[in-house]
Amino acid sequence: MNESVPVCAIVPPYVLDRLAEAGHEPAVRSLALDAAHRAARLAPPPPAASHPDLHRVIADCGHSERLPGRTARTEGRAPVGDTSVNHAYDGLGDTFALYADVFGRDSIDGRGLRLDASVHYGHDYDNAFWNGRRMVFGDGDGEVFGDFTACVDVIGHELTHGVTQFTANLEYRDQPGALNESVSDVFGSLVKQYVLHQDAADADWLIGAGLLAPGIQGVALRSLKAPGTAYDDPRLGKDMQPAHMRDYVRTSEDNGGVHINSGIPNHAFYLLATALGGRSWDRAGRIWYDALTGGRLPSDADFTAFARATVAAARARYPDDSSVADTVTASWAQVGISPG
Hints:
single chain, alpha+beta, Elastase, domain 1, two-stranded antiparallel ribbon, 10 strands
């Protein structure tokens, strides 16, 4: 893989745009930084020498905009006095554990890639992103957003962009881009459920719960259970995610609505996981993982192509139980997609 990779951020640009238009200075600065990072897309890291051990390096930017920052904690070192450093360290480890323990994957590239992260990036930076090589976390402004290291599902989401980068490499635009975002939401939620030992019925199915500051009218950035209901706030606007293809949003913004239309495949996964019951990573998660990593999904896959890949994955993994593939098909049908 020699091409540069997109910078994938957790807060959609249209949310920051709205805040910036209202004169919120942290959003103005955050948008400028995000634009600079998108323009300076990095090449992916060279292949790692395969080793099965978790290797994390957390750096502290000290509120500067220079990456990576000063090394603050490395693998095996005791917790330090900085909560953000420790949260990032733990969240990277939790994400590694889900992929290793459940799916047998050696880090996000499958070859033992070192997990690098930088915290305290910028001044009141209202975002967190994966740039193809590392995780970068802002502290938030304390008025709209809090510390981005505090949500393990945000960390799982961003690192999963790396998994997608090294597997299907889904294009970051239109439906392939919405699938890219959706896969990250799905596995970000699975990381949180895995950490909390939750069954599908017990999970909140929210991405970024606790990230919004007190006084903001909302519970999270996105909801897989009920897309379009995560927030409705005078400053943020209303969550625009659809849950069904009849409400698909056609737009030139947000790379063709990658953070918006991801609500449709997100909801399909929620419906599948809750219909199958038990732990979401046991069956629903394995099916999604197989579809993503099986080597047959084109980089320009649309929703229908991914739905077909999940049905095929279910049949391959559960050949003696046709009800699983039937449930996958039914879950997609409920969001207006027919795998055929």
